[in-house]
Amino acid sequence: MFVAINRLSVPAEYAEHLEQAFGRRGSMAGVPGFVTFRLLRKQGGGEYLVETTWDDQAAFETWRESDAFQRAHSGTNSKSPVTSSLDTYEIVSEQNASPA
Question: How far is CA 31 from CA 18, 68, 81, in A?
């Protein structure tokens, strides 16, 4: 499994707008190789993590080069106060809760 984490630095006055924008983007269900999406807000604010999990890096790269990716990011404002950095990871160990 492959994980991409985009770390966003978000001024307090822009946080609600960012959360609403992610809420409007729609589902990624059906994107080949896509597993999960999470938008995480740091307690106390100021930072978000956009975490996506993929079957492998190739699936992630294919999505980034797709028309769907371009459409999802077409509304971004070049004057946005949000800054970002992308890190990628490979899952080497994982635990989940056992079913009851």
Answer: 23, 9, 29
